[in-house]
Design brief:
Blueprint: H1 3-49, H2 53-63, H3 66-93, H4 99-102, H5 122-136, H6 163-177, E1 182-184, H7 192-207, E2 213-217, H8 219-232, E3 238-241, H9 245-256, E4 263-267, H10 268-272, H11 274-280, E5 284-290, H12 302-309, E6 312-319, H13 328-338, H14 347-354, H15 364-385, E7 389-390, E8 406-413, H16 417-432, H17 442-457, H18 470-475, H19 478-492, E9 497-501, H20 504-516, E10 521-524, H21 530-541, E11 549-553, H22 554-557, E12 568-571, H23 578-585, E13 597-604, H24 608-618
Parallel strand pairs: 1-6, 1-7, 2-4, 2-5, 3-4, 5-6, 8-13, 9-11, 9-12, 10-11, 12-13
Helix pairs in contact: 1-2, 3-5, 3-14, 3-15, 6-7, 8-21, 16-17
């Protein structure tokens, strides 16, 4: 081999080695860069989960992530706009009073807009930015007051608020001091009712504000409110506004017109009736308190419109264990009801806080980016809500609750022979229900879904001409067959049971069954009178009560009722809205419960009831 050939080969070998080294270096650089990006992302998420948004903001800046920077900038703008609106609204509310009395201000832990924000009109932008930052410094409850103990006019030696309930009262007092309306959204069973009583007794005793205060509640909770006031604040002048038209008219003339009361408890329907509304809106209420306030999630509902336009109050308070049931618009509607001058349009709110949640993309990287954006928005949404809403759950370690174990099971049942035949007949029937173009109509589908659910619950729901003997009731229904095997064991073990259903007719069949079995029971449905409700609940909760089963309709007995002397809940047929079932289950899982709580839902395999469960889970 000549020298020229050797030099040629050596040169190209060197080039090859150099190229390999360069490629290896590039691959290593990309690998290190990817590791660094992963580490930065983990650090960002860790900062976000720790609610350290200042640190998260710096990470996003250094990462030069345009999407996240834009998202933070937009939500900063929204929070800044909110601060300005709050400032104007509070000054309007206070009639131009001093800063302290104006209140209703918010305060964030970091500057709302970055100081180096750039815009085409830099000078104007900088001016607006500085003004917004100045407003941002007051984006929090300004007037702060520590509540150390419950008022002397509340409770007694054996009725003491728990520490977290004292903290709840303090937060409510802070709302009061800052001229703010708000949402007390503690999980069901944490004692929202007595925290409100704590607020009212505190401002009566410490602020000299004797009201009047109006509590608007569903019929199912009216009795409980009256009982709790009689226990915790017997010295207050409380009127329960109920009875027929003549009784209510006399009540207004004899007790209310002169102003000789402090608290009025009224149900939704009464507050919306024309004559009652005409009387009740003559007062300027110190507080309007709406129990089970998620009923206001639809701003076009009559309740929302009437309470917003017809009644005058200095402050409003919503109580709900489920502030967000379906979508973020419902939450905005609650805020709009409380602070209409601040949350006056939902367009920006929906645009900035809903879009990332609507992304449906199969791309894994896109999904990860969307997940981080969702976490950012949840964090910013918490900042928006923090001054207006207090939400705590039983699992919060800070509450230091000693709650019994919670056991929940889903019992899958098979269709009986009769149910299977009826189910198939209905399936075939819907295929025959076609319009002129040969399509199955939406109405036909809706009707058939209702009837299929009835078949799953009990075939007698479709035809009342059946023998309602105990043996037949059980034999023709898979759910009843399982129930018939469960109840004797629960009774033998000393358990007490709540059985919920959405269908009144089904509760009648259940009533026939428990009578045949000689079980001691009570039944509460929507048609049950208010006074009878109180008696039924008192009888069930009475010490040494022999009542084994309480039959309840999900809507009438699933909200605001305290039945913690029971330890087992059976949801016989689930609601399409899972929050309704959670409300029902929470009737026994409350503070003071000492027994292990058992919660069961019965479902039919391969049927519409099981499909309903899947729909609820995915909502």
């Amino acid at each position: 081999m000549s020298r020229t050939q050797r030099d040629f080969l050596a040169f190209h070998n060197n080039v090859k080695r150099l190229r390999e080294q360069i490629c290896k270096g590039i691959r290593q650089w990309h690998k290190n860069a990817e590791k660094l990006r992963d580490k930065e992302k983990l650090d960002r998420l860790a900062a976000l989960k720790a609610n350290d948004f200042d640190r998260y903001r710096e990470y996003v800046k250094s990462a030069k992530n345009e999407r996240l920077n834009e998202l933070i900038s937009k939500t900063d703008l929204y929070l800044s706009m909110l601060a300005n609106k709050m400032s104007r609204a509070s000054k309007t509310l206070a009639g131009g009073a001093s800063d302290q009395s104006a209140g209703a201000l918010l305060e964030l832990d970091h500057q709302i807009l970055p100081s180096n924000a750039e815009d085409e009109n830099e000078s104007e932008s900088t001016k607006n930015t500085n003004e917004d930052q100045e407003e941002a410094k007051t984006l929090q409850h300004v007037v702060k007051e520590v509540v150390f103990e419950q008022p002397s006019i509340m409770g007694g030696p054996e009725l003491k608020l728990k520490p977290y309930q004292i903290q709840g009262v303090q937060w409510l007092v802070s709302l009061y001091n800052n001229n703010l309306s708000g949402i007390l959204a503690d999980e069901m069973g944490l004692g929202k009712t007595i925290q409100v009583i704590g607020l009212l007794t505190y401002i009566i005793e410490s602020k000299g504000d004797n009201g009047p205060f109006m509590i608007i509640a569903p019929l199912s909770t009216i009795t409980n409110w009256a009982i709790e006031f009689s226990r915790w604040a017997p010295g207050l002048e409380v009127i329960v506004y109920k009875g027929n038209k003549d009784v209510r008219r006399n009540l207004f003339r004899s007790k209310m017109k002169s102003g000789g009361f402090q608290v009025l408890i009224v149900q939704y329907e009464m507050a919306m009736k024309s004559e009652d509304m005409r009387n009740l809106k003559t007062f300027t209420w110190s507080y309007i308190i709406v129990d089970e306030g998620h009923r206001l999630k639809n701003k076009d509902s009559k309740l929302f419109i009437v309470l917003s336009k017809e009644y005058t109050s200095k402050r409003k308070l919503i109580l709900t264990g489920t502030p967000l049931q379906n979508n973020i618009t419902e939450l905005w509607n609650l805020l709009n009801f409380l602070l209409p001058h601040v949350f006056d349009t939902d367009q920006d709110f929906k645009t900035w806080f809903s879009k990332p949640f609507a992304i449906a993309n199969d791309d894994e990287e896109e999904q990860e980016a969307s997940l981080e954006e969702q976490m950012v928005l949840i964090n910013r949404l918490h900042q928006v809500l923090r001054p207006f809403m207090l939400r705590r759950v039983k699992t919060d370690k800070d509450l230091q609750l000693s709650m019994p174990e919670n056991r929940e099971v889903i019992i899958k049942c098979s269709l009986s022979g009769l149910q299977s035949i009826m189910y198939r007949q209905l399936q075939h029937a819907v295929l025959r229900s076609r319009d002129e173009k040969g399509n199955v109509t939406a109405k036909a589908y809706n009707n058939i879904i209702v009837r299929l659910r009835q078949v799953c619950n009990h075939p007698y729901l479709l035809d009342e001409q059946w023998d309602l003997g105990e043996e037949n009731i059980v034999r023709v229904c898979g759910k009843f067959d399982v129930l018939d095997r469960i109840l004797p064991k629960l009774k033998a073990a000393g358990h007490r049971v709540l059985i919920y259903s959405q269908m009144v007719r089904l509760l009648e069949i259940l009533e026939t069954y428990v009578k045949e079995k000689d079980y001691v029971y009570n039944k509460l449905i929507g048609a049950t009178a208010s006074d009878d409700r109180a008696t039924l609940i008192e009888e069930f909760n009475k010490e040494d009560s022999e009542i084994f089963i309480f039959l309840l309709s999900t809507r009438a007995g699933g909200q605001g009722v305290n039945l913690q002397t029971a330890d087992t809940v059976i949801i016989f047929d689930s609601d399409w809205n899972p929050m309704m079932d959670e409300q029902a289950k929470a009737r026994i899982n409350r503070i003071g419960q000492k027994k292990q709580v058992r919660r069961a839902s019965s479902l039919v395999v391969n049927a519409i009831a099981l499909t309903g469960c899947h729909v609820r889970t995915n909502d």
